[in-house]
Amino acid sequence: MSASSVPEDTRAAALQAWLAQRPGCFEGLQLLRADASFRRYFRARRDGEPVVIMDAPPEREPVAPFLRIARLLEALGQRPPRIHDEDPDAGFLVLEDLGDRTFTRALAEGEDEKALYQRAIDRLADLHRAWPQRPAEATPALPAYDTPRLLDEARLFIDWYVPEQQGHPPTEAARGAWEAAWTQTLDALPRLEPTLVLRDFHVDNLMIPPEGAGCALLDFQDAVLGSPAYDVVSLLEDARRDVSPAVAREALARYLQATGWPDEAFRVHYRVLGVQRAIKVLGIFTRLHRRDGKPDYRRHEPRLQTLVRRGLAHPDLAPVADWFRHHMPEDPAAPGDVGDEGA
């Protein structure tokens, strides 16, 4: 992750004034990166030690959820960045600097894909095994990742991606059929005990920590309570990189063996939520392009379209596949002759 000079804006000025009032001497402040939200990250040294500073405008990205989930993850034996200082009202946090070795970077540097994905899936299995024994005093109330919330996310596709592809908004009939197809599909999911869902569990948000072993977690502030399959499919059907089918199959089998979820019920969740996530992300990336002027995310569209097309081959997703045949038969994401490489 590359750093750049400090931008000249009101938030950066407020951050510098805030740091001047905090314990320790902060030096070398540099913009590290901004993400797809309104958050930004800076790198600095406090009394000579490296730290990362989160800048999250309170009216846009409150930091309280990050703090709650970070503490919950620590209580569950996980490895979020340690929190050195916090000011939720101002929207600033001083965090442990975990370095630069995301799993994405490690893969680009030639680290073994299978070994890294096993490390990641083991972290997720550890988290899900620990969840039933979670300490009540450390567990915040979490939103349910249920049919209404998943359906709301699926609307991103029809609100943003469909108009972009078709050149006009969907008809009311198409919109109503979309909602009905997803409601039918999600309501038919077999029962699995809900667990902590981090929602962005993929190699961009996993770090090789300074101690070397295991993996550290980033970007978990939107955690919810839902299907254990969601984070697994987020990792193994990545929106941003192609995961080797053999690596994905082995990692999924390893996770199931470690956690003991009912195999077929879990795989139904995996297939359905894999498509739900892919169509949601297609909507988000289109919105980032059209509303926020960030077109680079759209380079991932072909991969996401392939994931959707492949997922729609499963009978579990028949209502959604029928919607595509009736309303978007020519779209690259519509059902086609893609071999099943997934669950």
TrEMBL record:
Residues 29-262 form the Aminoglycoside phosphotransferase domain. One of its GO terms (molecular function) is transferase activity. It comes from the Bacteria. Keywords: Transferase. Pfam families: APH. InterPro entries: Aminoglycoside_PTrfase (IPR002575), Kinase-like_dom_sf (IPR011009). Gene3D superfamilies: 3.90.1200.10, Phosphorylase Kinase, domain 1. It comes from Thioalkalivibrio halophilus. This is Aminoglycoside phosphotransferase.
